[in-house]
Predict the structure.
Amino acid sequence: MLTEDKCPRCGCLTRRRRNPVPTVDIIIEYQDQGLVLIDRANPPHGWALPGGFVDYGESLDAAAIREAREETGLTVTLLGQFYTYSDPRRDPRQHTITTVYVAQGFGPPRAADDARSLAIFTPEQLPPVLAFDHRLILAEYLKVRPQWLAKLKNITEI
Amino acid sequence: MLTEDKCPRCGCLTRRRRNPVPTVDIIIEYQDQGLVLIDRANPPHGWALPGGFVDYGESLDAAAIREAREETGLTVTLLGQFYTYSDPRRDPRQHTITTVYVAQGFGPPRAADDARSLAIFTPEQLPPVLAFDHRLILAEYLKVRPQWLAKLKNITEI
């Protein structure tokens, strides 16, 4: 798919290939208390996983650690990639492709950047509506959460 | 990271955010014979997994099925996502982020599009050098290949 850019000075139109935009989202397990979600400061509003755009030249791992810190104040240890979601309708702004990580969070949580506030939810108390496809992502995660918590326990005990 | 576009008519410079570019690659298991690799027609040359750029508005699954068909002539059934690789140095042309799939291939293989030729390799006979980070990807795949082949066997028997 091509997209057109219009020159702001002369109005000349140029075409270039348009690509989906890579993002990351992080499922953060926090101190046996549950999952960290942010209340988004920017549209689309609502509760969501912390996450954001991957910078050019930045690996997905680095982007996940950076975004978690920027939005929640937490230092995270990545436990692994969960899945990469790419439905073109998953983000109302544009076509984004998100790689979702599972991580363990450390330190005091503090909302910042794109997060107006944050909270820690147990699986039973998750908000019924989440931004983007994050309800689907968390539903898929909860099916296999015990395996991730076992991995977390093994890491902690080493 | 910002990138500059120069208007071809008036030379005016405009800035926009630069993002990594999403791609897919497909590890195709073909009829108990081994893995399908292509000999690339375009730089970087050499043997590689079939794959390519994800179109705007296209899911990763759809891109993987399309690229496999375009480059190898095969119809593929996706067995699942393997991993998403994002090292900024993995592609000498630009920063690409590739989601790798494992798939089963059907039909007669025929090189086309970006594939100058193709061949089916057993794990023991893989080319020592592959384009991009595909040697690493295949090394990581071969460690867990028995689990994927078991999954394939289960699907075939249903």
In short: Residues 5 and 84 of chain A are 29 Å apart (CA to CA).
